[in-house]
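Problem 12. The chain below contains 223 residues. Write out its predicted structure in token notation.
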Amino acid sequence: MRSSVPLKATMALTGLYLIVFLVVHMLGNLQLFLPESIARPSFNAYSEVLTSNPIVKVAGWMTYAAVVVHAVVSGVLARRNRAARPTGYELEDRGASSPWYSRSMGRLGVVTLLFLVLHMHAFWYRYHWGPIGYDADGRKDLYDVVVTAFQEPWIVVFYVVCMVLLGFHLQHGLAAALRSLGLYGVGFGPLARRISTWVAWALAGPFIAMPIYVFVVFSGGGG
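Solution.
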């Protein structure tokens, strides 16, 4: 593990696993765009499966482990990079050769981690141990918790900003993961970056739109 190669491979694999998790989570959240009469029972049934199905629960614990490993390895690599170049170049214009988000992956990762902790407390913890009502089918009404939360303007703004930053983190992170795993060769860098951009914003887009949609529909009297 003195070499950075296995660490970068670990970062790539855990990052790709977390992207798969985001795809599943995003598909589940798409139900919130449906009319309330359909969305409430559907979303609550989906939430029940996530917390009761043994296979899904194992996948959930693997996701938590992937988050921790991804964060720890990121910190180790960042420390090694700083140690390798303790002082910066006298003249440095990194903005001319790389976008800001590629130079801010650590900060974006920290913001995403903090968001995840707050998100888990607001929804996951509330679902398991907090006060929560039940829908007409006798399921815990997480739909009501989500809809109520996103009627608060500051929560909507916070969520949207975090999801935009997540989009930039994914945009660079996916391309970097594919490169670390050697999944594309010389000359395919631009294509890999374009694909990463499409995937990143296809994932982040619904997460950005969802709280805005809920706020407009329910706070605006359309729910």
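Discussion. Helices lie at 4-29, 36-52, 54-84, 105-129, 142-149, 153-180, 189-219. Students who got a different answer should revisit the alignment rule from Section 12.3.
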